[in-house]
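[job 0412] stage=fold_complex status=start
inputs:
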Amino acid sequence: MLQARLRKSTIKRLLIALATGALALGLALGVRSAAAADPAPAITPNPPPLHPTFRLLDAAGDSVLESGLPVSTMTTCGACHDTTFIEQHSFHADLGLSDFSADGLTLAQPWDKSRGAFGKWDPLTYRYLTPSGAQRPDLTTAEWLLTRGSRAPGGGPATTARNGAPLLSLAPDATNPESALLDANGELVAWDWQKSGVMEMNCFLCHLDNPDTQARSAAIAAGQFGWANTATLLATGVVTQSEAGYGWQPSAFGADGELVAGVLRIQDPTNENCATCHGVVHSGKEPLTLAACDLDAAQTATTGQVIAGQRIADSGLNLQDKATLSRAWDIHAERELKCTDCHYALNNPIHAQEAASARPSHLVYDPRRLEIGEYLERPNHDFARGESAQYTIDAEHKGSMRRCESCHNAESSHSSWLPYTDRHLSVLACESCHVPQLYAPALSSVDWTVLDAQGDGLRDCRGIEGSSTITGLVTGFQPVLMQRTNVDGKTLLAPYNLISSWYWVYDDPSGASYPVRLLDLQAVYFQDGSVQEGAYAPEIVAAFDADGDGLLTESELRIDSDAKRDLVAGRLAALGLANPRIEGQVQPYSINHNVARGEWATRDCTTCHHADSLVTQPIKLAGSTPGGVIPTFVSDANVAASGAIQPGAGGALYYQPQPQNDGIYIFGRTRINWVDWFGALAFVGVLLAVSLHGGLRFWSSLRRPRHGGATKRVYMYQAYERFWHWLQTFTIILLLFTGLIIHRPDMFGIFSFPYVVTVHNVLAAILVVNAGLSLFWHLAGGEIKQYIPRPYGFFDQAIVQTKYYLAGIFRGDEHPFEKTRDRHLNPLQQITYFGILNVLLPLQIISGALMWGVQQWPQYAAALGGLPLLAPFHSLVAWLFAAFIVGHAYLTTTGHAPLSGIEAMVTGWEEVDAHAVVPGAVVAEGRPDAASDPVSGSAPETKPGLRPSNA
Amino acid sequence: MACVPANVLTDVAMQRKYLWIVGLVAIVLVIAVPVVIFRPGAKAVTAAKSSDPWAGVPTHATHTDHKDIVKGPFDSPQAVTQSCLECHPDAADQVMHTTHWTWESDPMTVTWRTEPVTIGKKNQINNFCIGIQGNWKKCTSCHTGYGWADANFDFAESSNVDCLACHADTATYAKADYGLPAEGIDLVAAAQSVRMPTRDNCGKCHFDGGGGNGVKHGDLDESLLFPSASLDVHMGEYNFLCTDCHKTENHEIKGKLLADNLVIAPVEQVACTDCHDAKLHADERINLHTDSVACQTCHIPATALKDPTKVAWDWSTAGQDLPEDHYTYLKIKGSFVYENNYQPTYQWFNGSADYRYLLGDTFDPSRPLDLNPPAGDIQDPNAKIFPFKIHVAKQPYDVQNKTLLQPVTAGEGGFWSEFDWNKSFELATQYTGLPYSGEYGFAETHMYWPTTHMVQEKEKALQCADCHGSEGRMDWQALGYPGDPVEWGGRFNK
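[job 0412] stage=fold_complex status=done
writing structure:
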């Protein structure tokens, strides 16, 4: 125990020191402690593998040690596991073979032949699989394996022909693209599968802790498909390679023919296993390095995602502001999650979970699981997967993976600080905030309309200045947010990288369209049609060499004029390609990894609720637009391409998201221009009108002597009336102000957005309560009558009042209607307040409540058009309220003296013109019940009518 | 009604005149109170952290300049002390009650002895220079006193207290044999330089403990004299002095050493939680660790970051005429191993020691002997996984008596001058009272040094994979777990 505690290296170094001393002295003194010399037992980092030893068998089921033939995984592993079942339930093996259709599926492109890598065209790798009978063959099955096989785990198209027959049964045939190969001259020559062998599904590649992927790739590239799985074992020492070929090592096998225990360590796939084909995975202390946009690590190249627990600051990349990036590349990798924890085998009894639709709603967990033995015999190798935008293969398993919310309780971690938590969680994928930035570069565009000196398309990267992640500057990039539709129909905003590609397309004689094959493109661009020399054809140089130095640089290699386009098109046509033209597509790539913890996630409201909203941030697609062709979004992604692709500064092409097209309304960002213009005009119009009116009043009052009419003081407003009025005044003004901030947070940067939203909501609640109480008060006390225009004579009175405002007031006429306690609203006021209080206010309360309710009851708002309709309406009514307040405040100055109306609303007492007799007016000197003034609450101390009057 | 007096009317009028203020206040309250109650983060504020670590960040006041106060001349170091005591009459008495002076604990009972014992440098041994008895000449150069030359040193003499060791500017003062000022020290200049102790003062003994820079601790060495922020966040970034954490009252300095104590109460120890909340991480997952993992475990990933620390010392090779090198071999001391960037060993620790080897204890020399094993195990709710430097030594023992031997080394006739082990052990019997059989061997001994300095910010703290997963540094089974707690669950996972 104590010995175990002692660190091995310490002992080692002590021993070295001891040994040195002892040697120098010729072992003169021999007092050496046995204890110190006894090395500590090594702690094995990996427990002994659970997997038992086994025999390595060839395809015939004989021991490879005896036959000397390549190992067959199907028979070797098939001795215990149902390898046929496994291969049949594995989209990794199938890769689209099972739905390959020579007629095409028309997914993203009309020339797509399947949903998987075997048949679906990928503009990043460009070359495409040729169906039989094609006039201009490109990739045959054999060449597909030669070029793509290192990223195919075997089985499926590596062993089986498109009609289901074994590849080994195909006779060499130069006319059959399944048993032929394109030679350098573009001619098909026969391919002998018997000689090359085929590539069975390679269990070792994912289940061995040290698969020799380099040796495997080399075997594949050499066309030794049959030996590829054997080559995977090279690093284990079970097999060796020499000039003569592969030789099985007898020392690795026991007397019974089984492998010696521990030689092959079979295990669950680790992240490193997955990384072989998928992307950059890194563990350990060594600083992480990667090559920018290297398609060998496809997931990283297309999205910038890196699976590593290391802190970004500790990586070896030359990253902008690197020292501050103390977050890990991926929180889940940091927390020791493995790829297979989420992307598990669908019948893995630990993880398997039926879809909600496939189990009774009362059942949360079905304990009837596969026995572990049953599972190990027939593990489903279709793995749980998410809702990726880019992979159409195995679409029926999309959404089978557990998502963030399967493990995380977002409510508990967000509700304490995120206003409208449910709303945010229902419209935003977690990744939208938790993957705010990618720190590795990713491809942005590929231009196959031209070829570089190596005969390759031109690739552009985003998130890096220069091309090296060490000598260049890595800046990372912000993904673009687009609306994804999940398989269950739910829509969410989620982050994506967009990769645009341009390429030449032609029509073959059957009328079908195909991308121009690389061979033909090289024939067009290079001298003698051969890329080997790297010399461009003279006509190409003449057209593209802008600086006339005889060399074509990458910046010159752009089809930016009709002349260049026509030249290339002409040369393509000369090869016999009909209707050559440039087309372009944009492929969204889902970003779901590189998740950051809360403190690194987007948590500032104004990141989205602002004029510069993240949701509407454009993303640069490419630095130029080859051939002037605006690319189109692929049609087979689950992403709403509702934004606009438009040219921007410097000839670059941008994608501008337009979330309003997806029915998304973002407070602080989205606005309907006409609503704001109309509302502002109404507001300013009223302001101008009252200014004019007030100016005229002032001017006219100067021109005539002061009209000394009789006045009297009237107790106009009871304390409660004054209270509710002013409370309403304050809340409405504050509501307008806070509403304006929410509407245009960019104009009021000093205010905290979430605070203002909360204040707005609280004010609204106060307003509703205040309105409700005052309605009750008015109803109970009969005061409501004041607001109800009397039908009889109403229009006459309204006309009289209008005339007064338009003319009489300037002449100093008396008010046509005396303002009294029981009738303090004139007919115009009555109709205005009737409108305001019974139409605008309820509308505003209802629309506001529905907007507030999108958190809890989104269905009600949705029934009324959702936020895109309710929110602009709410803004419009707010503008009208603002306009009303201006008019209302102005009209209060039209009383006896400019401030007497306001004074009355403050003190309750108003100086009014004393009229003789007014139609419909009740002359009153006060109210009989005024003594029980509710605010002063005191005993009757005075009769208002007794107050001294100015009259 | 008509007979209401006029003055009442006026009062009422006055009341009404100001009624609007009441109304205004009411309106403001009706609006403001709900806004305050419902403001965002209101819940979070109530759950705010209870402690403010910034309150612990020191501001160092300028100390009174003693240049014009201390006059001198002093004919002896004791005269300096007497001069100090004129104004600080209690100081020496306070110091004399501390272990900095006594070098031993109060008597305590231990399970494996019948008589009460004391533990301290004064009478016990470590696995560096082994023991001070008979070796006072060199060892007491770090004592806060003057002239401890033999067992008869007068611990009651207040003028022997060395004020300057801790209070003088180290540029003016240094100690030498028997704790006396080094040759050529200007006592007046030293005395005039006094101020609050700095890292230099403490470091003179604590950085160089065990006989040289970085020998003992690993997390305390001379690199902390001018520390960068990356060396230690407290001392480097915020210029903490030792006494900012080792709070001192009446010369009693907080903090106890595992090597010289057995049971240490939490209140006697300096803790991160003196300033920091125990659950201060924004990440709840990390907070869930703090019941079982000490702060130091993650925040001190390694020690000896700049200067190497001695991890092994083999006395058995001493006395030979081998090529000498400070880091590998010295004739007087034997062979060493130094390590840089030392990764600690992790053990359960509840703050106390399980055992302390006492002079005369017999042991089994066939197995390494833990001189001061930390107390605590996975069952102990007060124990946490804690980083230790384990110093491995081979030191002499009495083959027949099965006791560790304390040689006379620095003392007269000791090993360092005669290179005769037998003689050094025989000489020591008069000081230690231990018998010597005449037959010696060398046994492996381990000493545990809790790692608690060279604290790193969160950006440099350990990450999950440093302990968990296939490349983790923890030996989970040795700690008592069935396996990695990420997969097997933690100890409170019921």
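[job 0412] summary: The radius of gyration of chain A is 40 Å.
[job 0412] exit 0
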